[in-house]
Structure formats: structure tokens, C-alpha cells
Amino acid sequence: MGVLIDSTRTLAPDQVMAPASAWQTITRQSPNFGFTNDAYWFRFQIDNLGQQDVARFIELPIPFIDDVQLYHYTAGQLKTSYTLGDEMPFAQRVVRHQNFIMPLSLAPGANLIYIRLASSGTIEAPFRIWDPTHFYEANDDDKLLQGLVIGILLIMIVYNLFIYFSTRDINYLYYIGFVASYLFFQLSLNGYTFAYVWPNAVRWNSFAIATFMASSELFTCLFANSFLRLRHFSRPAHYLTRALVIASAVLVALTFVLPYSWTVRVGAAFTIPICLTALALGYWRWWRGATFARYYCIAWTTVLISLSILNAGKFGLIPSNVWTENASQIGIVLLVLLLSFTLTDRINHDRTLRINAQAVALGHERWARASQEALIKTKEEANRELEQRVATRTNDLNLTLDQLQLANDQLQRLSNVDGLTQISNRAFFDSALALEHRRADRAKSSLSVIMMDIDHFKLVNDTYGHLGGDACLRALAALMRPRIQRVGDVLARYGGEEFVMLLIDSSLKDSMALAEGFRADIENLPIPFEGRTIRVTASLGVACGIPGPDLSPQALLARADKALYQAKHDGRNCVRSVAADNRES
After folding, report:
1. For 99, what's the count of Cα atoms within 13 Å in the CB-facing half-sphere?
2. If you ran DSSP here, which 8-state letter would residue 333 be given?
3. Predicted TM-score of the model (pTM)
4. Which pLDDT does position 582 carry in this prediction?
5. Structural contact between residues 186 and 328, judged by C-beta atoms closer than 8 angstroms
6. DSSP string spanning 498-553?
7. DSSP state at residue 419
8. Cα 424 to Cα 570: distance, rounded to the nearest angstrom
9. Which of 210, 238, 379, 536 is within CB 3.0–4.6 Å of 230 for a Cys-Cys bond?
10. Band of residue 229 on the pLDDT scale cut at 50, 70, 90
């Protein structure tokens, strides 16, 4: 087959048939010239070796070509001509098929075929010559395969729509939007929508591919940002995906007003960066401990490969064949199935976290109830003995009251002690901070607060279980308890993996030294657990100042928390401080 490039798009059949025309021989099995504004003429000869006319179909399986013209010459005379294209109503096609089908009656001897292609998108010319009977047989098989793919995608859309209505999880809505957009993109790309959905909407059909391509990219970015929880995980990653969302939304709007040749190129150029971004963020989240991102990564790896093959074919980098033409369909089916697994896996992950949190809360509730029942039982016994001996045994009554007081003291002590670490709890710390703040205010002495947080404590829980995390909390409490022994100093568990220390009449330098000592000892502390050794690090924030109207207990605590946040921001496993004048170090 020969090819002639018409850069002016004005050559007529007589001109291209002239002997001086610059025809080139095509040696590739499937000609693909990518995005171009040139018109391309193709010529080839079909020899009928019989004595009678033979019916044949010439198929161009690229349904989005704007202008398709065929000229059939026999013995130098024009026998048949067709003018087709996706800018003409579908009803004007000689064969009602989503691809361009051009019937020919081949005369005995040589039959010379000229075909002109011009389009605002890609130019591809994988022509096929069919016996009509074989064509309809193959067409039935192809439609069966396409129907299977469409059926799978529609089932997944409906199925996940019901899940969205029951869970109200916005991720399912983004997932449905992506699958629906990609489904219509594929149907538009393969010509099925023009053949069966909007055969008379020529104007809309001319840019539908670019519109659905851009909407697929839009929902991809929305899904990635929401599913991976980038707002809470990484602000830069969140802002990057938000920028891609805005760019994709603008591109969707521009497909309705700008030429298709511009928007389709921009959309095609966007696909690989968006997929790479979604995939890189997924692997980053997985690497940082988000196990629910594993199926997400596998899904986008699959679709990235398929889209790379599809785009490489559209840009003419690889020849078109059955695998490149169907790569996107294979990839989208795998993507849809794997993303469903992804959403289910995240639901199970969230459910596990909720169950664990409920178990911890239930344990605390049972402990409190047991303490309350013990108190009630003690009171009931005391009252019973009091009623029995009130007349004759006053001394026994006093003894019973003493025992009751002892039980109350014990309960009071328990209410101020953290059950896991056996150090003070947050309630005791809050009351101690308020009391010592008033004393330091009267004496004009300094007051220091050290807040400590175990780095990557969730990873410890995920790796060793909550019992392993509890072992770490007990070990750190045992390490710090002997060093907080001065009268008025307090060591308390502030909540979760956080500890807090209140130091009376301690300078910022001394408090920083104590905090640095804790940090170094924790880093070098081996924590045995079930035959293994756990090692953790901690970040510490120190706030120091003289109480006054501008330095309330809450302000002092907030400065310590700010210093802790700075330590985490600076890479964790370090100590940062905020002095009374709010200077950070």
C-alpha cells in the first residue's frame, strides 16, 4: 500500500493519480500517523483472478475519522465512490455499522483503490478486506465481546450505586463517575454511541471523546484525593491533586467550546501524568503503612499499562493490532474489579479500627464499672454491719467507717492513676497544672511543661498489635517514672501515645536537658515483647515560663503542644521548645 501526504488538504483524485505524485511505500503492517492536521491518501490494488464480479467489504475500524473518501477504479474508469466520516449523520452510511464499511464489487482483473483520510484527531489506516459472510460472523463475535465488557461495567456501576446509597461514602460516587465516564469514552472511541445512542447528534459526537476523556481524568483525581485521605496525610499531595481536579474540570468545560483537535491532544497528554500521580501517591500511602491502598496500587498499575499502550498506538509509536486496540478495555475491566476490591478492603480496614477502638473503650468501661461495684459492695457491707452493731458496738462502727474511708481513698487514688502505665492520668495532671500555676504565679517562679509523643505509634500497633503498643507504653512509663520524683512534679499519660510532665521551678535549659535525656534513652531502649524486641523513638515539645495574665495553664500547655508539633514537623525523634516570649528553638 502506498501513501501520499496532502499538507494542504486540497488535492483531488485526478491530482493524486498523476504520475508525478510523491507516493511513498508503506511497509508497516498497521499504518498509524498519530495526531496530525494533514490529509493522507492511500492506494492499493486488489486483483480479481476470477471471471465474475466478487463482492467485498473494505473496513476502516477507526470510527472517529472526520472525513473518509473511497474511489474504486477499474480499467482507468471510476466504478464506485464513497464519502463518509463521523461529521456526517450516521443514517447516511451505506452499511449501518459503528466502523466505516465500504462495499465493493470487484471486476475481473485489477481493481485500483484510492482512500483519502483527514481528521482533527489521529490518522490510522488499518484497512481490512472482508468477504461479507465472514465479516458478519466476525462482527457478531466482536459485539458479543463488547457486550460482555459493557455488561460488566454496568453491573459494577449499579452494584456500587446501591452500596453508595447504603453507606453514603463519597468514594463510591467518585468511583461510579469514573467508571461511567470511562465507559462512555470507550463506547465513543469505538463508535457504538454514534451508532446506537446519538446517531443524529453529529456536533456532540465530534467532541464526545474529548469530553469523556477529561471527565474520566476529573473523577480519577477526585477519587485518589478522597480515597487516599490526602487532606490529612499530606497537604502538598492534597493541593497537587486539587490542582489536577481543577485543570480537568476546566478541560471538561473547554471541550464544548474549543476545537476537538486541541482538547483531545491536551486530554491525551494529561492521561499519563494523572495516572502516574495517582499511582505514585497510592504506593506512597501503602509504603507509609496504609494497607488499604494495596489493591488501589495494583489497579492503577494495570490501567497505566493499558493506557500507555493505547496512547502509544494513538501517537503512532507502536503498530495497531487486536491487543493495542483492546488494551484500554482489558485495563478498564481489571481496574473496575480491582477498585471494587479496594473500596471493600478499606471498609474492612476502617471497621477493624472501629472494633479495636470500641474494645479499648469497653475495657475502660468495664474497669470503671468494676470499681463502682466494688465501692457499692463495700458501702453495703459497712451499712449492714452498722445496722447490726449500732446499739452495742460503737468501736466496730468506727472501725467500719475507717475501712470505708480507706476504700474511698483507694478509689480516689485509682481515679487519678492510669490503669495501663500506673502513672497519673490526664484528669490528675489538669488539676495539678491549675494548682501549681497559681502557686508559681504568686511566687513568680518558672513552670515547665514537657509533652512527648511516640513516633509512628500506629505502625507499632499495626505491626505488633495493641498488646505490643501497650508494652511500649508501660516500658516508657517505667523509664521516666524514677526521674520525676520532686514534690510538685507530675508525670502523666495524657492520652493514647502521649505523655506529659509538669516541672516546678525548672528553667528552660534544665527542662530541655531532661527532655533530651528522655529522648536519647527512649531511642536506645529495647522493649521485649513475645520473644521480639521493639524499638521506638519519641518527639518532645518543651514550654517554659513564669505564669501571669498572658500565660495561663492552657496557654502553657498549648505552647508545649506547638513545640511538639514542630518536633514532628522537623522529622521526629527530636526536642523543640517554646519560651515564655513564644520564641521557638
Report:
1. 19
2. H
3. 0.51
4. 45
5. yes
6. EEEEEEET--HHHHHHHHHHHHHHHHT--EEETTEEE---EEEEEEEE--BTTB-H
7. T
8. 29
9. 238
10. confident
Give tens-digit pLDDT for 19-37. Answer: 777 888 887 666 778 778 8
Query: For residue 67, what is the enclosing H or E element?
Result: strand 67-74
- Report which secondary-structure segment, H or E, holds 244: helix 235-254
Q: Determine the angle formed by the axes of helices 508-523 and 457-480, rounding to 10 degrees.
A: 120
Q: By C-alpha distance, which of 182, 192, 85, 102 is closest to 145?
A: 192
- Which grid coordinates belong to 435? 494548682
Per the structure block, which three cell numbers stand in for 508?
A: 528552660
Burial 384-417 (b: 16+ CB within 10 A, else e): ebeeeeeeeeeeeeeebeeebeebeeeeeeeebb
Yes or no: say if 438 and 532 are a contact pair by the CB < 8 Å rule. no
| Phi, psi for 293 (deg, rounded to 5) | -85, 0
**Cβ neighbours around 463 below 10 Å, total:** 13
User: Nearest CA to 101 among 27, 19, 11, 191?
Assistant: 191
**C-alpha cell of 80?**
464506485
Integer Cα distance of 142 and 70 in angstroms: 25
* Cell 529522648, residue located: 519
Report CA torsion sign: 528, 529, 534, 537: negative
373 labelled catalytic? no
Residue 390 grid coordinates: 449500732
Q: Per residue in 431-458, pLDDT tens?
A: 999 999 999 999 899 999 999 999 999 9
For the four alpha carbons of 545, 549, 550 and 556, in that order, the dihedral sign comes to positive
Pick from 193, 10, 232, 200: which is nearest to 88 by CA?
200
Question: What is the three-state SS of 5-52?
Answer: EECCCCCCHHHHCCCCCCCEECCCCCCEEEECCCEEEEEEEEEECCCC
Strand bridging mode 498-504 / 447-454: antiparallel
Q: CA 63: distance to chain centroid?
A: 33
Residue type, 206: S
Contact 42, 25 (CB under 8 A): no
Distance CA 181, CA 201 (A): 18
Question: Grid coordinates 491536551 are at which residue?
Answer: 266
CB atoms near residue 565 (< 10 Å): 15
Q: Exactly one of 365, 380, 497, 584 is catalytic; name it.
A: 497
